[in-house]
Amino acid sequence: MTGPAPDPFRTADVDVANPYPCYRRYREEDPVHRGEGGWYLFRHADVRRVLSSRRYGRGAPPSHLPEACPYLRGTVANWMVFMDPPRHTHVRALVAKAFTARIVEGLRPRIGELAAGLVAELVDRVASEGEADLMDGFAAPFPLLVISELLGVPKEDRPWFRARAVDLQQATSARVTRGPDAFAVAESAAREFGAYFRAEFARRRAEKADAGTDLIGAMLAEPGRTGIDEDLLAATCVHLLTAGHETTTNLLAKGLLALLAHPAQSERLRARPGLLPGAVEELLRYDSPVQMISRWAQEDDRVGGRVVRRGDKVTLVLGSANRDPERFPDPDRLDIHRDARRHTGFGLGIHYCVGAPLARAEAEIGLTALLDGLPGLALADEPVRWADDLVFHGPARMMVRADGRPTRGA
Questions:
Q1: Rg, the chain, Cα only
Q2: Integer Cα distance of 293 and 279 in angstroms
Q3: Is residue 286 within 8 Å of 258, Cβ to Cβ?
Q4: d(Cα 279, Cα 340) in Å, to the nearest integer?
Q5: Are 128 and 149 in contact (CB under 8 A)?
Q6: 375: three-class secondary structure by DSSP
Q7: Which of 166, 152, 214, 139 shows the shortest CA–CA distance to 394?
Q8: pTM (2 decimals)?
Q9: Residues 229-245 pLDDT 10s
C-alpha cells in the first residue's frame, strides 16, 4: 500500500472530523502498516492482542518534552499511563479503590446535581442568545467539576483548575506546535499544579483532616503506599484531573453529536432511559474519544504476518478497531441496541482506564441531562469546529440551539 499512514501527531492527510474512511482503507489493504512513526495496527483482533500481551510495554514518557521544562517532564514521568509493572501496579492500586462501581454509584446523585446546574446555565444562555457553545458551556466544565469533587478541590479553586488543565494540554504531543510558548505555558501549569497539591497535602496533615472524604485524603491515608513520594502523589492528582477531563469531554460532545445525527435513536433514549448504559458503550465504539494509543515491543513478535522487533513503537488505532466489521457487523451504523461491550474505547489489559466507571456514569448522566433539559436541542448553523488532534479526538467548538428546527446532520 502506498501513501502515508495516519500519524497521531500530524493531521494533514486525514479528515479530522471523519477519519474512518482512511482507517477502513488501511484496515482492508495494509492492517499492520509500517509508517514513519513505527507500526500502526488497524484490526480489532490485532489491537486487542497487543493490549493484552506482556510482550508490549507502555515505555517512557513522551520524548518531545524539552529539557527546559523540568517540572513538566517530572510531572508527566510520574503519570501511571507511562509506567510498567511493578511501579504501575503500586500507583494504580493507590487510586483504583476510588473508582469502583460501588463508589461511583454513590456519587451519581452529586454528579446529577452538577449536570443539572450546568444544563440550567446552558438553557439560560440559549434562551438569551439563541445559541451557545456546548463545549464551553457543558462538555468541558462538567467532567472537570466531577473529578474536582472526587479529589476534594474546593469550589473556589475550580475555575483556576480548569484554566491550568487547559494550559497543560498545550504540550500534548498530538497537538503542540512545538513552539516555545506552548511549552512555557504547560511548564508553568505543571509547576503551579505541583505547588498546589503539595501545599494541600501539608494542610491536611497539619489539620488532621478526615482521610475518608475524598481521593486526596484516601491516598494520603493509604497504608500500603511504600515508595510513593509526594511528587508522585501530586503528579497522580494532576494526571487524574487532566485525563478524566479531556477524554470525558470528548465522549460527551461526540456522543451528543452522534445522537443529534440520529434523531430516532435520541427519541428512543428519551422514551426509554434504561437503554442508556448500552447506548454509552455503543457511542464509545462508534466514535471513540481516544483514537490512538502507543506501546513498545519488549521482545520480538509477529503481528499479522509482520515482524515487530524489540524496541519498535506500535500505535494501536482504537478508532479503527472499533469499526472493524470482523468484530462489529455493519460498524459504520450507530445502533444503541448493539452489544458493543468488547470495544477498545477504554483500552484493555493492565492499562485499562481506571476511571472507566466514572466516565460511563458521567456520560449517562450528562447525556440524560442534555436530552431532557433541552428537548429541542439541535446543532446551530455554524459548522462544528474540530480540534486538530487525532489522539484526543473531539470538537473544539460546537454551537447548539433549542428552537425545535430540524437537526442538521453531523
A1: 21
A2: 24
A3: yes
A4: 9
A5: no
A6: coil
A7: 139
A8: 0.88
A9: 788 888 888 888 877 77
Could you tell me the three cell numbers for 116?
443539572
| 324-359: burial string, b at 16+ Cβ within 10 Å, e else | beebbeebeebbbebebeebbbbbbebbebbbbbbb
Contact, 323 vs 23, CB < 8 A?
A: yes
Residue 185 CA to its chain's centroid (Å): 21
Q: Taking residues 96-125, what's their average pLDDT? A: 87
Tell me if 400 sits within 8 A of 259, measured CB to CB. Answer: no
Q: In this predicted model, what pLDDT tens digit does every residue of 279-320 receive, in sequence order?
A: 999 999 999 999 999 999 999 999 999 999 999 999 999 999
Displacement of CA 349 from its chain's centroid (Å): 17
Measured distance CA(95)–CA(257) in Å, rounded = 32
Q: Indicate the pLDDT class of residue 7, thresholds 50, 70 and 90.
A: low
Which residue's C-alpha cell is 521544562?
Answer: 69
More confident residue, 383 or 107: 383
Residues 6+ apart with CB under 8 A from 141: 118, 162
Please provide residue 249's backbone torsions phi and psi, each rounded to the nearest 5 degrees: -55, -45
Q: What does the alpha-carbon distance between residue 83 and residue 273 come to, in Å, rounded to a whole number?
A: 39
Place of cell 433539559: 373
End-to-end CA distance of the chain: 31
